[in-house]
């Protein structure tokens, strides 16, 4: 059970680092990301970014858990 805690801690730190880098370098927009603006309201739907991040996370987690 301690291994799962360490794994979650590593992923949490990794998410913080990636989030900080995205804040510093600005958001990247893919062709499937939608932005709707109406007056003072802006809605951003990162559909393509979410799909790509999901695929990358699936591959990384499969590699991590298959080695055990």
- In percent, how helical is the residue content? 55-70%
Instruction: Using the CA coordinates, give the radius of gyration.
Output: 16 Å
Structural class, from secondary structure content?
Answer: alpha+beta
How large a portion of the residues is in β-strands, by DSSP E?
A: 15-25%
Sequence of secondary-structure elements: HEEH
The termini sit apart by 13 Å
Mean pLDDT: 79
pLDDT < 50 stretches = none
Number of extended strands: 2
Query: What is the count of distinct domains?
Result: 1
- Read across the widest sheet, the strand sequence of neighbours is 1-2
Largest sheet: 2 strands, antiparallel
Total number of helical segments? 2
* Rough outline: elongated
Brief write-up:
The protein has one domain.
Description:
The protein has 68 residues and is α+β, with helices and mostly antiparallel strands. The protein has one domain (2-66). Helices cover 65% and strands 18% of the residues. It contains 2 helices and 2 strands, in the order αββα. The protein has helices spanning 2-25, 47-66; strands at residues 33-38, 41-46. It has a two-stranded antiparallel ribbon. It is elongated, with a radius of gyration of 16 Å.
